Amino acid sequence: MSQQNGFHVAVVGATGAVGQQMIQTLVNENFPIKKLTLLSSARSAGKVVNVNGQEITVQEAKPESFEGVDIALFSAGGSVSKELAPEAVKRGAVVVDNTSAFRMDENTPLVVPEVNETDLHEHNGVIANPNCSTIQMVVALEPIRKKYGLKKVIVSTYQAVSGAGAAAVEELMDQTKAIINKEEFEANILPVGSDKKHYQIAFNAIPQIDKFQDNGFTFEEMKMINETKKIMHLPELQVAATCVRLPVAVGHSESVYFEVEQEGVTASEIKALLKDAPGVVLQDDPDNQVYPMPADCVGKNDVFVGRIRKDLDEELGFHMWVVSDNLLKGAAWNSVQIAERLVELGIVKSK
Amino acid sequence: MSQQNGFHVAVVGATGAVGQQMIQTLVNENFPIKKLTLLSSARSAGKVVNVNGQEITVQEAKPESFEGVDIALFSAGGSVSKELAPEAVKRGAVVVDNTSAFRMDENTPLVVPEVNETDLHEHNGVIANPNCSTIQMVVALEPIRKKYGLKKVIVSTYQAVSGAGAAAVEELMDQTKAIINKEEFEANILPVGSDKKHYQIAFNAIPQIDKFQDNGFTFEEMKMINETKKIMHLPELQVAATCVRLPVAVGHSESVYFEVEQEGVTASEIKALLKDAPGVVLQDDPDNQVYPMPADCVGKNDVFVGRIRKDLDEELGFHMWVVSDNLLKGAAWNSVQIAERLVELGIVKSK
């Protein structure tokens, strides 16, 4: 945990679902840490977190908390990032922000290392970590874009409740128990904690993630659309998304239709390409019923891809099924991976 | 139950999930029945079913069971239909078959009354009831096709386990209980009872419904593709499907992308059209978080449509979310509705 040549790392939102995964991922990856500062809201401050055998007390996040910090991983909501990320940057830290606060800011790189790590060089103190559902899709699409070009993407998602936080997972489990025991239950969180109405998620599917925009798409859908174009540097790419919440605790799935630019590409060629693609595990053997499923991806950093097949009508069209642990590649692992690349590329140096 | 001017109706597969719903729907719809014969496999024969206060003993289905029958509703698997539907027809019955046995037979009409009831006149003894996931989609698409034309459909489904029978619902519930109680469990039925491997469905999503075909699509996906073209009389329509099983007991949902032929159509026009469409209930008010969900559709005959919005790039493209009770409009209600239309159009007359 304490390496002399390491970095002073801060985790903001250390008691949340993603914050906890960030800490665990830093440990698992053996990230070179000189000092680890755990920060949270005043409400959670004082909690003691066991990090690889060492007890660390969580402190309230304040501007001065970032003195001496080299890398700050933020995952405590957009308003906290908007307020404190500039304070961290002012004190010399590089911020990796897992909220939507800076993602579409044109001076902030939005990075998935397998896709656009060279954008890290353009940072102005903050690097944004994309939305969970965007990350796993672009990891699968990038090798295809690189070799065959990419014209169009239409995605329908099957998203786990942990994307809405630990309380949403608890709500799913409580409602499930109540239904099985034939007891009354309430819906208080999903689909969106801050929206007006809440609906049953147990044994249901809710076609709303985040709030609705004026154009009829939800904010989650617009994140997938806009972030994909930005990360892949394809402003002209046609992207459409429908985002749906499922009674699954962890693991997002996506049914992705895409059109390439090059004619004559076969499904076998796409499979061969993804078999060796960074961050991708190909699970595609219909004869043996091999395809990715959320229950199998939990705790793994990879993006799992299967069900690759050519559209029966559209010469340039293909379908695939993409699954990943939304708390890892979709959040904690992508953030820590960005921190790793910042170190390895010499963009962040220990103070 | 016993109407002098009514019909002698037989239900084949009377003890199954859909058979039970067929009986209930005949009662609810006050279908003019002179005599009701309940048939099943030898295994289930002898069971007594209470039909609107009257006890009826289930008999083993044999060729001679259909003597005097006017209308036979089949839902006991494709092999039973292949064997016994011709026997029923030979004895003067009109068969409404809810299996895939005759759906793609060119001499058998495949009917969703809201879409192509005039095809009923072309029957040769058997009328096929389409696949559940196809029915609800074409009910929503037909009014759009009629007014604006239809070029292309890409659908991703979110299907309930009851589509795989009552035992699959039991498996979902048993696995859910086991996971909540942290007990061991087995997977024995889903995704496909007769396939080699079985996977956990509780808190999971399985991208396989029915067996895989050589082209990488599942049979369920090919049913949606081929049946949609046949029912809508659009052999040139581009249709693609990805079918996914969810931990939901009853109620299929579908994320449908479609392209119309006419330029300049707005989402408001599509909504206005579907508001008054037969068999459709529009639930589309994003400002008030109104959209269809499987938990709300159970026990209702309608097809619920919401989340209608124009694609942001494709001038002819739209998205919508379609939900229906897969045991009712997807199976029992569509079959009984066909029987009602056969009577009302004078195609079947009581013997």
From TrEMBL, chains A, B:
Binding sites annotated in the UniProt record for substrate? Q159, R245
Entries under InterPro entries matching the protein: Asp-semialdehyde_DH_CS, Asp_semialdehyde_DH, Asp_semialdehyde_DH_beta, NAD(P)-bd_dom_sf, Semialdehyde_DH_NAD-bd, Semialdhyde_DH_dimer_dom
Report keywords, A-Z.
Amino-acid biosynthesis, Diaminopimelate biosynthesis, Lysine biosynthesis, Methionine biosynthesis, NADP, Oxidoreductase, Threonine biosynthesis
According to its UniProt record, which residues of this chain constitute the active site?
C132, H252
In the record, biological process GO terms are: 'de novo' L-methionine biosynthetic process; diaminopimelate biosynthetic process; isoleucine biosynthetic process; lysine biosynthetic process via diaminopimelate; threonine biosynthetic process
Sequence positions that bind NADP(+)? T15, G16, A17, V18, R43, S44, S162, G163, N326
Cite the Semialdehyde dehydrogenase NAD-binding domain residue spans from the record.
Answer: 8-123
Cite the annotated pathway: Amino-acid biosynthesis; L-lysine biosynthesis via DAP pathway; (S)-tetrahydrodipicolinate from L-aspartate: step 2/4; Amino-acid biosynthesis; L-threonine biosynthesis; L-threonine from L-aspartate: step 2/5; Amino-acid biosynthesis; L-methionine biosynthesis via de novo pathway; L-homoserine from L-aspartate: step 2/3
CDD domains cross-referenced by the UniProt entry: ASADH_C_bac_euk_like (cd18131), VcASADH2_like_N (cd02316)
Q: List the PROSITE patterns hit by this protein, alphabetically.
A: ASD (PS01103)
Q: Which positions bind phosphate?
A: R103
Tell me which Pfam families the record gives. Answer: Semialdhyde_dh, Semialdhyde_dhC
Root EC class? oxidoreductase
NCBIfam families per the UniProt record, alphabetical: asd_B, PRK14874.1
Record-stated family: Belongs to the aspartate-semialdehyde dehydrogenase family.
- Function description: Catalyzes the NADPH-dependent formation of L-aspartate-semialdehyde (L-ASA) by the reductive dephosphorylation of L-aspartyl-4-phosphate.
**Subunit note:** Homodimer.
- Name of the protein in question: Aspartate-semialdehyde dehydrogenase
Give the species this sequence originates from: Neobacillus mesonae
